[in-house]
Design brief:
Blueprint lengths: L2 E7 L4 E7 L3 E8 L7 H13 L8 E5 L11 E2 L2 H12 L5 E5 L4 E7 L2 E8 L7 H11 L6 H6 L12 H13 L4 H23 L5 E4 L6 H11 L3 E2 L7 H16 L1
Helix pairs in contact: 2-8, 3-5, 3-6, 6-7
Bound molecules: adenosine-5'-diphosphate (ADP).
The site of adenosine-5'-diphosphate (ADP) has 21 residues, from helix 3.
């Protein structure tokens, strides 16, 4: 029996998964703070407790994500692109396109039989990433987890025309000042973020099945806006935010076997 851990040390959250023999997920744990904080150690301890295992029982730990090279407890590191492709393929064996929207970047990965064949990434600008939603939620005085519920109540979409997060922030403030409803503004925000992502996806080429990964996949309003604009069905899983960590755990299993 082999137990392996994948830990995804992101910019805004740390996610960890423990796998038994690369086919059973025996624990998951996430902490809503990222690299440079106590998040990685808390995620490591938290997932051990969730799986009722001790550190000594883990055969291999593989780290991925923005902060992967600063986590001393990992046996190896691997890029998020490979890990997201691997994790998405485990959950959806017929996946061809992965759209990962995380806290500070967005990646579109084209997959063929589980292997990455092409990708595009935006890590230069907050627009099109979770950061955009975090900033907008802050102005609207709501939690990011409330955005989908608000958008579901919307009866019209307020267009957010600025592509820059800072200018879009001013636009949202003026919309609030003119009395527009929060739900309609949120609806517009969802379409603004996905418009950026669709541009990136078109450069890679969109093939079914399209799977969305990363923390933002928990926002059904963004998933719906993405579907509308991509004109493809977009699949998510309750494990969407863990896909990178899951892929890391699967690679850890291959490494443990070779060890
Ligand atoms: P990273 O790997 O860069 O840390 P994640 O893939 O973990 O990023 O995604 C973090 C983003 O997910 C946050 O910026 C936030 O916008 C979004 N998010 C986190 N939790 C939720 C939630 N419960 N509902 C909707 N969005 C969420």
């Amino acid at each position: 029996m082999t137990y392996t851990m994948g830990i995804d040390i992101g910019s805004s959250a740390c996610k960890a998964v423990i796998l038994k023999d690369a086919d059973e997920i025996v624990g998951t744990f996430k902490v809503a703070v990222g690299t440079g904080t106590s998040g990685p150690d808390r995620a490591f301890q938290g997932v051990l407790e969730a799986a009722h295992l001790s550190e000594e029982q883990i055969d291999y730990v593989l780290a991925t994500g923005y902060g992967r090279n600063t986590f001393a407890r990992a046996d190896a590191q691997m890029s998020e692109l490979s890990c997201h492709a691997k994790g998405a393929y485990f959950l959806f064996p017929d996946v061809r396109t992965v759209i990962d929207i995380g806290g500070q970047d967005v990646k579109v990965i084209q997959i063929d039989h589980g292997a990455m064949v092409n990708f595009q990434m935006n890590d230069k600008c907050a627009a099109g990433t979770g950061r955009f939603l975090d900033v907008m939620a802050g102005i609207l005085e709501v939690d990011v987890s409330d955005l989908a519920g608000l958008a579901a109540k919307s009866t019209k979409r307020i267009a957010i025309s600025s592509t820059c997060t800072v200018f879009a922030e001013s636009e949202v403030i003026s919309q609030l000042a003119t009395g527009e409803k929060k739900e309609d503004i949120v609806n517009g925000i969802h379409y603004a973020i996905t418009a950026r992502v669709v541009g990136l996806a078109r450069r890679v080429g969109i093939r079914d099945r399209v799977v969305m990964t990363g923390g933002v996949a928990q926002n059904e309003g963004v998933v719906k806006a993405l579907q509308d604009q991509l004109e493809h069905e977009v699949f998510t899983s309750p494990l969407s935010q863990y896909v990178g960590a899951l892929g890391a755990g699967l690679y850890a299993h291959s490494k443990a076997k070779r060890k």
